[in-house]
Amino acid sequence: MILPRERKLTVEQLAEVTEIVESFDCHIQTIVGTERCVYAILGDESSETMVNRLEGLAYIDRVDRIQAQNKLMSRYSELSRHKIRVGGITLGEELLVIAGQCTVDPKNPNLFIETAHAVKEAGAHALRGGVWKPRTTPHSFQGDNKSLKTVLEARDQTGLPVNIEVMDEDQLKMALDARVDMVQVGTRNALNYSFLKKIGKATRDEGTLVLLKRGMHMGRTSEFVSAAEYIVAGGNPNVLLCPRGTVPGLDGYRSHPDECITPLLKEQTWAPVVVDPSHSVGRSIYVPYCSAAAVAYGADGLCIETHIRPQEGIGDDPKQSITPDVLKDLIVELNGLWHLREKFQMP
Ligand code: PEP
Ligand code: MN
């Protein structure tokens, strides 16, 4: 990773650096951080000569060579200074709460608008709403393009930034054309490396937020961090890691809850951790406990399925959505646990 002396390299400087790096069969990827731009060297950056030539340039501060497998995501990377902001808060400074329906019902868009107002009133900072749904069987409701308009309408009315899941390039394009604030990569696509690369590139210019769910079949936490590395290597550092439970499920839970990996992720990476308790435990009655556990483990945020009247919902909503009233109380309790992260801080 090349760190310039100033905030960013000029066009001429970048051309000179690119020429050097390419002569060693590597490539440059500019990553726009909040403090300054960093220039990732993609490829084998082990050549001493390449590093010496780069460090010999007057406008280069230094070249960091991190020995980690995920060198951009590493907590020792310069990108650890990068600050991610969502809905008026800076991740790591205050608990982020993303809330909203699993699925927007195209037959009842007003329900979603009502939910949006209610979650805002409850204290959420961002709104989620499934437009396109990854369903286990092709015979289930797959989502509807027209719900994108409903989500945008809810954003206009509430001022909340919106998160929607995209499963393919067409959906990604539609979401980015609509300037959604956050795209979600669901658990099923978390290991789709070519899609992750495309998301990194497509979101690079706007720095669109990406909520990356943990693959339900993922094992080691490093596999999760590597998936995020693909997005950042595409040029977008605004990635949030979202543990959401793995398979097989634990007894009566939908998945095997994994909020406990939060400290393990934080040992490896600077990226904020936003836990999804809803798909983890899968029943609204268990969601508050899982949310509290996540905050106790040091999570920076939560993504909670919430519905104004869950029994009228579709998709996961009838089973796992909490109501805005519960959300409101929960946010108060969760904020009361926030101090634990300072109390038991890592060395
Ligand atoms: C969702 O967020 O509604 C969803 C389907 O998520 P996941 O990819 O975690 O199953
Ligand atoms: Mn869902």
Give the fraction of residues assigned to helices. Answer: 25-40%
Q: What structural class do helix, strand and pairing data support?
A: alpha/beta
Query: For this entry, what is the oligomeric state of its chains?
Result: single chain
Radius of gyration: 21 Å
**Beta-strand content:** 15-25%
Arrangement of strands in the largest sheet: 12-11-10-9-8-7-14-13
List low-confidence stretches. Answer: none
Characterize the structure shown.
With 347 residues, the protein is α/β, with parallel strands linked by helices. The chain is 36% helix and 16% strand. It is built from 13 helices and 14 strands. It has helices spanning 11-22, 48-55, 109-122, 147-158, 169-177, 193-204, 221-233, 262-268, 277-281, 287-296, 317-320, 324-337, 340-343, and strands spanning 2-4, 27-32, 37-42, 60-63, 85-86, 89-90, 96-100, 126-128, 162-165, 182-185, 209-213, 239-242, 274-275, 301-305. The strands form four sheets. Strands 12-11-10-9-8-7-14-13 form an eight-stranded parallel sheet. α3 runs parallel beside α4 (147-158), α3 packs parallel to α12 and α5 packs parallel to α6 (193-204). The longest helix is centred in the N-terminal third of the chain and has 14 residues, at 109-122. The two termini are 25 Å apart. The structure holds phosphoenolpyruvate and manganese (II) ion. Phosphoenolpyruvate is lined by residues 102, 130, 134, 165, 186-187, 213, 244, 276, 279, 316.
